[in-house]
Amino acid sequence: MSFHATLPFLLFQSVWVVDDNGGPGVDFTDIPPAIAAAADGDILLVKAGTYAPFTLSGKGLRILGDGPQVTKVGGNPPSPPVGTAVISNVPSSSFVYIEGLHFRATGFFGINLLQPLQVSGAGTRVALRDVVVGQTGGSLSGFDLQPGLGVDGALVHLFGSSVFGTGPIGCNADAGAALRVSLGGLVHAAGSSFIAKGPQCCSPISACPSAGGPGILVAPAASGPSTRAWIADSTVKGGPNAILPGSTTGPGLRVDSGTARVSGGGTSFVQGGALAGGGGCGVAVFTTGSAEVVVHSAVLVGCPGQTIPITSGPGIALGAPPLPVLRATGDFTLSGNVTLSLTDGPPGAPFAIAIDEAPAHFGIPGPFLGELLIGPPPSLFLLSGGLSASGEFSLTIPLSGAPSNLAYLPLFLQAAAFDAATSVWRLSNAAVVLLRP
Fold this sequence. Notes:
CATH architecture of the largest domain: 3 Solenoid
Shape: globular
Radius of gyration: 21 Å
Number of domains: 2
Helix content: under 10%
CATH class of the largest domain: Mainly Beta
Number of strands: 41
Strand order of the largest sheet: 1-2-5-8-13-16-19-22-25-28-31
Strand content: 35-45%
Mean pLDDT: 85
Distance between the termini: 27 Å
């Protein structure tokens, strides 16, 4: 997809205001009718409030809330709205961008019943920024059979978001999981957290000894491309166990015949669920079948004094070279300042940061370590230079005077730093910038 070909499409679309309080200037009081009326590429500005779960299919939209603390999708029964928000079958020529919403788990008396968000369909592309999926509360037992966020066959990027397992039960592997990726889906997460729930409760208990759910589950595809995930600069925790003999915790990352990459700086980690009574934690990475997991830097967390291994299963490669960590921080308005920073790169290495209008996730041939997470060339090079002796770079960009038509336009970034010792370009995680007026 060409940046220049799609830029006009993104800039000249209708803006709809959604506010459950109604009033002057408000187009809709709920999200579902706004989605029904909007055309491909339109923008929904969703004010603080509580809204019904929606189904978005057949078109791409930008849905921008006032923040996950105040803009909520889904409620708690018996009071509506209840249900699972679904994004599916978005044309490959478009994508969905969602920012500042909280997709809430729903249930009675803290027992979660429904999956908050599901993304599916080959060709569907979704970017989530500053989004919360699920919630920290909930009972230790319940009737959940699904993860907090399910990605089946689609491409999803998460930025600065938090995903929680919806709760326990069931003998299926994804019960209590924060994120499930399956059916050839692709997920990239940067600066996010994934917290599983647990324990699972089965009958008879011998069939499922009360294991916590995995923080992230990468499940196999029946056919076609492998299911893949790249978890960068993020934290992942498996679900805790029950106080029962023989019970186990959920792994931080479970990969069943898929592929995964784990990278990040010193603040990111993958850890198994907590053992009952504060006795430590479980396996950080658990694999089965033909799984392939590459771990860059020391990002797996074990527990001192315990015999449980940090990893378990085939296909796990530890100690891969560190990948650069790209972050975009600051005041994301047309009058603010945005700081772009790179860390964990090769000391003194030349680097470049490219920019594009859409998320991607695919391997590229040649001397590269990592996958391309923005659209294929010709992307635009935003800047280039040299990293410091500690492998870092930072630049603050003032936005005052930026064209007003850049408002509400998501721009995806990825960096590459050249490792002269191996003649390989190390690719960073992706980042995204969306400016508001």
